[in-house]
Amino acid sequence: MANGDRFDVVGFDADDTLWRSEDFFTEAHERFKALVEPYAPQGVDVLDALHATESDNIPISGYGVKAYALSMVQAAVTVTGGQVPASVIGELVDHAHEMLMHPVELLPGVPEALAAVGASHRIVLITKGDLVHQTRKVRTSGLEHHFEHIRVVLDKDLATYRRVLDDWSVDPPTFLMVGNSVKSDILPILELGGHGVHIPYHVTWAHEVVHDHDGDFDTLTSISELPGWLAGG
Ligand SMILES: [Mg+2]
User: Could you tell me if 179 and 221 lie in one domain?
Assistant: First the structure.
């Protein structure tokens, strides 16, 4: 039996699975460090402070660029004891706007892989983050037509997946989720009784890194391998 015969529906993550995302945050971190560090006392790690602020703010402002912008401003003010100039805050906010307006950059092989998988399976998109930004990326990506359903969620946890699959009348054992984050795209789906294929991206946000797990799933090097994996056994 081919792997693909076990699934009716294949779900895809979006950020760093279909298109680049984390790279832009990495650039923003570097910009933050360059702009803010000169105003912070010596010995203060401004990026550490930013990461901690981001993590603390997730329950309050969620994921995505707008939440990140608020964390940058908050961390800049805090680590400099209020000494950061308004012009620097302005640059941080401008950079966040640039991130929001940046055109979608698809990862190699994505349209071809979606077309191939879509020929044999129903496919859906589940992405977390800011509703406006994620919706804009989906709509401008040219990929929207591939998906039977698209859902932007607040978080990718067990309860959320259960609710979304239930809404779509998808039975978890017949569902395969494909994504770059073991924590968000794979482990909750396995726990629900579904299946996962991990396609790592070259950078993973610190918040998404999991070191210890005993999840049973396959890992592919590129999304281009997915049609062959589904056809194989
Ligand atoms: Mg992702």
Answer: yes
